[in-house]
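Work Package 3 (structural annotation) set out to generate three-dimensional models for the target panel prioritized at the project kickoff. During this period the team completed the workflow that converts sequence records into discrete structure tokens, so that structures can be stored uniformly alongside our sequence database. As a representative example, we reproduce one entry of 161 residues exactly as it appears in the project archive.
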Amino acid sequence: MCTENKKIAIQDTYGERFQHCWGCGPKNEDGLHLHSYPSEDGESCICQFVPDKKYTGGVPANLYGGMIAMLFDCHGTASAAWFAHKNKGLELTEDTVIGRFITARLEIDFKKPVPMEEVITVTARAEELGERKAIIVMEMEAKGEIRAKAKMVAVSVKDNM
């Protein structure tokens, strides 16, 4: 759940074909249904998640690294889609079918363990935005501390991918 004023999640505007991701797809019955929202000023995107204890890593109190990567992956591509959409002068509405981005490269710096069963906030910003490519930088915060940072290269795809 997010406290942003805009209540339309970026993932809810994906075209039918792209709504089945385990992490963020609204139509994946077994998925996590992550939601990413543009900030009020549109300069960042925010995703919040509380990991269940079943997503633990080798130390029971810490989140599994693969889940950290998945959070960056799903939120980063949603954010890239938003920044490209905004760059065209468009807003999110209930009728929006946003352009889709996929991950071409993802670099993660794991700074501190990510605690279980606590609110994790991932904030994304566009570092560079081109015609087909976006470079997204992200920070993962929990309990007031930066736990991981990521840099993603995301590329736009056509609906017939």
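The CA atoms of residues 72 and 150 lie 7 Å apart.
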